[in-house]
Each structure stands twice: as structure tokens, then as C-alpha cells.
Amino acid sequence: MSTGRTYVEPAKELPVYGEYDVIIVGGGAAGFAAAVAAARNGAKTLIIERFPFFGGTATAAIMPQINGFRNEREPDGLQTTRGIGEEVILRLKELGGLGITTHNKQKVYPTAPGQLSFSYGVDTEKLKYVMLKMVTEAGAEVLFHTYFCDVIREGRRVVGVIWENKSGRQAAYAKVIIDASGDGDVAIRAGAAYWQTVHDEAPRLIDILIYKVAGLPNEHHVHGAGVYSAPCLWGPKAGPINAVDARELTDAEIRTRLAVYEDLKARKAHDPQLADAEIVETGPMLGIRQTRFIEGLYKITAEDVLGGARFEDSMAMASKPIIHYYGYRRFLEHEGYEIPYRCMLPKDVDGMLVAGRCMSSDQPAFESWRSIGPCMCLGQAAGTSAALCARAGVEPKQVDIKALQRTLIEQGAEIGQGRRRE
């Protein structure tokens, strides 16, 4: 919606909040892991996030399931998500915030280093705590309640970001910027090319509102990967929306939230376990699955995923099935595929990396690597690269890929065959 009128905003001087080695925009699964990795590798790191907690979809949309740690079916001998993602699961276990799901009758592993199951139910409140603790322990600076607005550019290179919060409009500079916004906001403001699915394109994922219920007789067995006293239900569907259009996104939020009690009522009619259930929480945002994809130096494809691709610049692995594109859950016939570093590099912008669900990919490949587990691996790779680049005084396209891979392996990541952590 637009009136067609325009307004010229007056130029003004902005206070510079600080200068950093690495600034991360967005504190979802990828951004959180990027902040931990960058700070642990010695970079002066700032992460900005609009919510007062980390986790993105996992916490703000109360998605109580983290998956993608290994192939969902045999061959499943390799745990493809390790490093920071594995650490999150092990910390949740210690805190009592972890449950085993029975997703598609997956095999259950011991939940020890290198032995994680495909999927876990998680307590989203404990997940907020674990992520915040890991970021602050690593020494990264955190700025919550902060909304990214624009980039500062010098030619092709992004050298800083501009944001708004209760303190007003501010700027900050960094040697490397990481776009972990989920929507490619930073890269696109910098002029990066991208693609996006459209409303009537059938092979795309649908956005939903998730809600928690209480009052069940056996709360461990309700559908929805519940943990302890508040199982979650996958609630009203928003339909295929353009979630980077504020009007459409708002309308979808209104539509699904007004439908949530009817959704539970309909479920009660078919499920006796829900007879006394009451809604105790809806997520503060819809579970948005996909919006924009950056055009990177490499676009990972369905052929890569299904064929178990290997890359010289591998920086992460994934192994989840392609869940929707082919009209059925297409499982992988191998232990996992490698994801190349080039997927995180916008082809026409310098000085930055893109981590998380807006990485360069085609649709079917995205449906495999998009899960929270693999996205933490992407974040770890991005944060590690950013720290190495800041230290060496080079931009991300010039990183020493062997040094990056060596560092990732030393810090527990799984990056692929021939470079496997023992």
C-alpha cells in the first residue's frame, strides 16, 4: 500500500556507536552462532537483535524442535551438525531442557558428543538462556531492541551499519559485516542481487503460527515436540505470503492470531487428549520459513544435495531430507553433503557474509539445509571467517580457506569428507 507521495528525509549527522572487528545483524540460530564464533576467535564483536533474546524462529516463533543433526534415515552414521550446534544441545541436556522427539520414527542416539539424534524437542525458554549465556561468555557485545536500517558503503564494500532503537538513529563501523537477518536485509540494502519465491509458486514452504497448550493428561505424547508442561501445536497457516512486505505480514499475523482458538477447538473435536487443553502462549512472531535468497558466488542446488556433493571450500555439512518440493519427503541416500563457503558471499558486494536461511541456494536445496541445526553451522563458519579476515586485514572473499577449515575443525565443526574431525 502506498499513497504515491514521497518525502525527502533531511540529512543529519549520526552518532557513531562504536567500531568493531565484526558486526552481526540478527540473533537467530545463524547470528547467535556467528557471534559466539567470532568472539571466541578473538574478534571485537557486536550483535544487534530486535528481540530481547536470541534464537529467531526457535524462540520468537516458539519452534520447540531443533533437527538436522544427521540423516533422518539410514545411512545415518555421520553427525553432520557439530561444533556450536552440538554444544547447544549438550548444554540444554545439562539444564533439563531437552526431550527426544519421535519424528518419523527416527533412531535415538545417546546424546553425547558425536552421537546426537536427528531431532530434539527443546524447552524454548531454556534455549533463550543457553544462547544468551554462550554469547556473553564468549565476550561478544549485545544490543537488543535494535532494528537494522541501512548500510554504510565505500564503493562495493560494506563498512558499517545504521540502526534505530530507543536511543535514536546510530551508526557503527566494522571490518566485516555478517547478515544473519534471515531476509537478506543487509545484503539487499547494500545492492546485492537476490531471488524470491512468489505467492502462486507451489513448491515453497508455508508459514505458520505456533502456540503452546497446557492441561493435557499426558503432555509428553501430544503432537508437536513438546517438552515438559507446555507442548506446542503447529497452528493456523498463514498461507504463502510475502513476509518481507509489512502489510502482508501484518495481515497474516492478524489472520492467524484470530484463528488460533478455532484451531484448538477443531483439534479438540478429533483428539480426546486435548479435551481440557488451554492456550497459554502464542509466539511473538509467525514461524517464517523463507523469504529472500542472496545470489552468491555459488548457489547450492538440488543436485548437490541429492548427490552428496563435495567442495574444496566446504565449511559445513547438512543431511536433512528435502521436505516439500517434490510433493513428498525426499530422503537422502547418503550421510550428508558439503556446503561451500562461496554460498555465503554475495557476488556483487564486498566486506560481508550472509549466514542463515537467506544464503545462496535454490528452493529444493534450501528445504534440506534450512533447519536450525545446520544454520548454526553456517553461523559458526561465518563468524570464524569474519574473525580471521578482521585479524588478517582482508575481506571475506580473500579469506585463507585452508586456515578457515583448519580452525573450524579444531573448534569442533564437521565440514566434510577428507577434513573430518576425529
Number of helices: 11
Could you please say which CATH topology of the largest domain applies here?
A: FAD/NAD(P)-binding domain
Bin the helical content.
25-40%
Main sheet summary? 7 strands, mixed
Number of domains: 2
Residue-averaged pLDDT: 92
Structural class: alpha/beta
Structural overview:
- 27% of the residues lie in helices and 23% in strands.
- The chain has 422 residues and is an alpha/beta fold.
- The protein has two domains: 16-197 and 291-410, FAD/NAD(P)-binding domain; 207-282, no CATH class.
- The strands form five sheets. Strands 1, 2, 6, 7, 8, 9 and 17 form a seven-stranded mixed β-sheet that branches. Strands 3-5-4 form a three-stranded antiparallel β-sheet.
- A hairpin with a 2-residue loop joins strand 7 (147-154) and strand 8 (157-165).
- Helix 1 (29-40) runs parallel beside helix 10 (372-392) and helix 10 crosses helix 11.
- It starts with 15 loop residues before the first strand and ends in a 12-residue tail after the last helix.
- The relative contact order is 0.19.
